[in-house]
Structure formats: structure tokens, C-alpha cells
What we know:
The chain starts with a helix and ends in a 5-residue tail after the last helix. It has helices spanning 5-16, 20-46, 68-72. It is mainly alpha-helical. The chain has a domain at 5-46. This is DUF2281 domain-containing protein. InterPro entries: DUF2281. Pfam families: DUF2281. Residues 10-47 form the DUF2281 domain.
Amino acid sequence: MSTHPQDAQALIDKIQSLPRERIEEVEDFVDFLKTRAGQRKTAAKAKKHLEFPVVSVGEWPADLSLRREDMYGDDGR
């Protein structure tokens, strides 16, 4: 991300106009943003696709019906 020098200078001027304790808060927030950005990069690199085991139980019976009524019966609902 590139910043125009005027934008950066305007931000610096705003920060410098703050009381000292507020400048410390801004500094803490900037440190937090940098840390969070680093954590996101690390998490993105570490993220792996889950691999679940596949168990083959053979072919399904040709006459198998997956209709609800055939599986659970029809109780009139």
C-alpha cells in the first residue's frame, strides 16, 4: 500500500497535535495493527486443508431406497 506524502504528513500533523497520552495510544494501536497483520500472514501460511479418511464399504444395493417413508416408515405426518 503506497501513501501519498501529503497524506502521511497530514496524519503526522494530526498525531503531533494530540496530548502525549493520546500519542501513546496511537503508537500502541499501530503496534497492534502490525502484530495482527503478521499473525494473519502466519495463520494463512499455516492453514492446511483437512484430510478425512475415506472408508469404502463397497457398492450400495441396487434396490436401496433413500425415500423417507422407506427408511423410517410412514406414520401419517
